[in-house]
Write a structure and sequence with these properties.
It is built from 3 helices and 4 strands; from the N terminus they run E-H-E-E-H-H-E. By secondary structure, the chain is of the alpha+beta class. The chain has a 4-stranded antiparallel β-sheet with strand order 2-3-1-4. The model has no long low-confidence stretch (mean pLDDT 95). Residues 8-99 form the NIPSNAP domain. Pfam families: NIPSNAP.
Length: 104
């Protein structure tokens, strides 16, 4: 398993637009076989940082999702929405191996 962790730096005046974008991506990740763990929007502290995490069975499955999403009409529309609205100033992506309580 591999979990993708995304940290976004946002335009703090467009959090609502980012929330709409986030809601678009949750079912899209799941459509391609991932398990989305949600987006986390600013609440207290920094007003321009958001996080997201989702898991795929393997890095190869994640890479397949990335390739397939570039050809999917709904994904392309989500990418275009972010590009047009310009609410994401930057982001960083990291990968982790999850540990769950049921593992020995």
């Amino acid at each position: 398993m591999v979990t993708c962790y995304l940290k976004y730096v946002l335009d703090p005046y467009q959090i609502g637009a980012f929330e709409h974008y986030a809601k678009l991506w949750i079912p899209l990740v799941e459509k391609f076989g991932g398990q989305h763990h949600g987006y986390f929007l600013p609440s207290e502290g920094a007003n321009n940082i958001a996080l997201a995490m989702f898991t795929f069975a393997s890095l190869a499955e994640y890479e397949r999702y990335r390739q397939d999403s570039m050809k999917d009409a709904d994904c392309i529309a989500a990418f275009k929405y972010a590009e047009d609205k310009k609410f994401i100033l930057s982001y960083e992506r990291s990968f982790f191996r999850p540990v769950f309580g049921d593992q020995v």
